Amino acid sequence: MITSREIRLKSRLVGMPSADNFELATVSVPHPAPGEVQVRNLWMTVDPYMRGRMADRSSYAPSSRSGKEVPGGAIGGIAASNSTMYGWRPNFQVGESLQGGAIGEVAASDDPRFKVGDLVSSWFGWRERFNAPGDSLQKLDTSGLPPQAFLGVAGMPGLTAWVGLLKIAMPRPGDVVFISAASGAVGSVACQIAKLKGHTVIGSAGGAAKCAFVRQIGADHVIDYKVAGDLTGALLQVAPKGIDVYFENVGGEHLEAALAAANPFARFAICGMISQYNTVGLPSGPRNIMFVMGKSLRLEGFDIANYLDLMPEFQREMTGWIREGKVAWKETIDHGIENAPAAFLKLFKGENFGKMLVKLG
Ligand SMILES: NC(=O)c1ccc[n+]([C@@H]2O[C@H](COP(=O)([O-])OP(=O)(O)OC[C@H]3O[C@@H](n4cnc5c(N)ncnc54)[C@H](OP(=O)(O)O)[C@@H]3O)[C@@H](O)[C@H]2O)c1
Fold it and tell me: What digits encode the pLDDT tens for the residues 218-238?
């Protein structure tokens, strides 16, 4: 019998997560039943949003208009019918295996649409191997890109940057665009798209190496928020005429600085607020929120689950940019399913540089 190791939630997260919140388990994986495919995972992603699903409170994505249902079926013995693809995200259950994006290779198939060796993307990360109905898998055409790019620059994080910038913030010619967590999976793509569209870009990141990368991918100004001290002052120094767009990934002090530096009618794409995710109790709100009214600002949050229908259009554009050498990206790769929890924890300590991935198999 073939076995697979998987990561389960051992206890709900309160405050900063730790390795003790996770456990490694081994399950047997039988031959796939009729209509099922057995997949050996090659890559899995860890993403900040997963933290919300590990806590008691609901994820920052409580509902979705168009979240794509993962068809039902038993995956590693756990019914998947209640799960969704980036959509409505119920909390992970203690004692059950976690879920998330993954790229794998078909190891056995009882579905004529899939043959051994096919590359597939799925929602069944955090495990080495699984059986799933063919309908819950997507064949992956990598268009010559490394497969793991479809968990980052050409996948959900890239789409998030593209949607947040172009569909939510909708920059106008001449706009000054400020992007936080600018060296990360989402932020680095947002920076490059904003530059491709001809905007002045200001990126913030933590540390000299990350700031050098943000500059290398085209940002006109970079703020190392860890040494900036007064972030509002630092932002106004590089944007003396103010900012017109803010791509929000961090929250807290960053949001206050963006509100202070915003020009009238500036647009904020509220993508994430990672500085607040581990707060116990109520997250801190921006003390200068009244600028929203005084400056006629538009702050719009978005959940990428509601924009998955744009993935093909995004991927066509992004793979074109990558082929033309117009978009670059960084990855931090940890190895082995047993190290997936540690990889996840890195996101909240800034220990990832670019897309955080775990290589399996
Ligand atoms: N709305 C959506 O549908 C959607 C979809 C995907 C992602 N997101 C959000 O987008 C943001 C970025 O996600 P990602 O996957 O691209 O992660 P990422 O930026 O690749 O990694 C997280 C980064 O956040 C920064 N960070 C962590 N704690 C921080 C703190 N306390 N203060 C300031 N910065 C901190 C760190 O960078 P530094 O070293 O530079 O501090 C860290 O490397 C997150 O807020 C995430 O929740 C939203």
Answer: 999 999 999 999 999 999 999
Give the span between the Cα atoms of 313 and 183, in whole angstroms. Answer: 24
Q: Which of 64, 163, 186, 276 maximizes ligand 1 atoms within 8 Å of its Cβ, making it the mutation to test the pocket?
A: 186
Q: Is there a domain that residue 321 lies in?
A: no
Range of 243's domain? 156-305
Nearest to 259 by CA among 236, 278, 283, 277: 236
Q: Is residue 183 included in any domain, yes or no?
A: yes
| More confident position, 71 or 119 | 119
Based on the fold, state whether residues 34 and 142 are members of the same structural domain.
yes
- Over residues 303-334, the pLDDT tens digits come to 999 999 999 999 999 999 999 999 999 999 99
Tokens of 256: 């206050």
| Average pLDDT of the residues in 195-213 | 98
Same domain, 301 and 347: no
Stated length of the chain: 361
Distances (CA, A) of 45 to 188, 229, 331, 335: 17, 33, 11, 12
Residue-level pLDDT at 284: 83
Q: How many CB atoms lie within 10 A of CB 310?
A: 16
* Ligand 1, atom 29: closest residue by C-alpha: 275
Distance 184 CA to ligand 1 centre (A): 6
Atom of ligand 1 nearest to the CA of 186: 16
Query: Is residue 14 situated within a structural domain?
Result: yes
CATH code for the domain in which residue 141 is found: 3.90.180.10
The model's pTM: 0.93
The answer to whether residues 161 and 140 belong to one domain is no
CB of residue 157 inside a 6 A radius of ligand 1: yes
Note whether 254 and 261 are within 8 A (CB): no
Q: What is the number of structural domains in the chain?
A: 2
Q: Do 243 and 341 sit in the same domain of this protein?
A: no
Does 317 map to a domain?
A: no
DSSP string computed for 151-194: GTTTSHHHHHHHIIIIIII---TT-EEEESSTTSHHHHHHHHHH
Q: What is the mean pLDDT of the chain?
A: 92
**Domain shared by 112 and 191, yes or no:** no
